[in-house]
Amino acid sequence: MNVLMIVESCFGNTAEVAGAIAAALRAGGAQVRLVQADAAPAPAGEDLVMIGAPTHNMGLPNPASRSQAEAKGARAPLPGVGEWIDARPRSLDAARVVVFSTVTGGFMSGSASKQMAKRLRRHGVQEAEREDFRVLGTTGPLADGELERAGRWAETMLAAVGAD
Ligand SMILES: Cc1cc2nc3c(=O)[nH]c(=O)nc-3n(C[C@H](O)[C@H](O)[C@H](O)COP(=O)(O)O)c2cc1C
User: Fold this and answer.
1) Do 17 and 52 touch, CB atoms closer than 8 A?
2) Domain with 32 in it: what CATH number?
3) Which ligand 1 atom is at minimum distance from the Cα of 59?
4) Is the CB of 53 under 6 A from ligand 1?
5) What pLDDT digit, counting tens, does each position of 46-78 carry?
6) What range defines the domain where residue 12 resides?
7) Cβ of 109 below 6 Å from ligand 1
8) Residue 17 half-sphere exposure, CB side, CA atoms within 13 Å?
9) Quick one: CA torsion of 122, 63, 114, 154, rounded to 10 degrees?
10) Could you report the predicted ipTM of this complex, rounded to two decimals?
11) Per-residue pLDDT tens over the stretch 119-156
12) Where is the signal peptide (predicted)?
């Protein structure tokens, strides 16, 4: 199985989740290309495309929210995953697409993965799955057990693609 994983991360937490997912996929025999959103290529025939982002203001990062993150010490390179989705490579149609995000959680936290799914559907792409992982505050860290949960989630993906 070949996987393209595109991640945007301001404080490193979503990147950590992406790393755990990639490690579990590789342990299961997958070839994984993990790239930052600002260097993301178009899909090139991969079986699975995974897109990850932090939740900002209940949805996807945008230029204003990235500036807010930078004011708190983050590195927020452009473009991010929202811009990548809006550019919508045609080759995305052929892949199974899975989205994930990090959230602080709680009442009205919103979710970047939910907004990514909506945006993909607007572009005619239906996501196969989406998931959120909890951080304990704006800069992190991830809540206990989330990296392990990310690894277990990745294992279900190996099974799903294998079964297709
Ligand atoms: C500008 C800004 C707005 C945010 N808004 C939300 C929000 O609406 N809901 C939420 O759950 N987390 C929110 N957060 C916290 C992010 O979820 C958290 O910073 C992110 O998950 C950390 O991931 P990263 O290290 O990959 O950037 C916000 C963070 C920033 C910087």
Assistant:
1) yes
2) 3.40.50.360
3) 8
4) no
5) 999 999 999 999 999 999 999 999 999 999 888
6) 2-163
7) yes
8) 33
9) 110
10) 0.99
11) 999 999 999 999 999 999 999 999 999 999 999 999 99
12) none
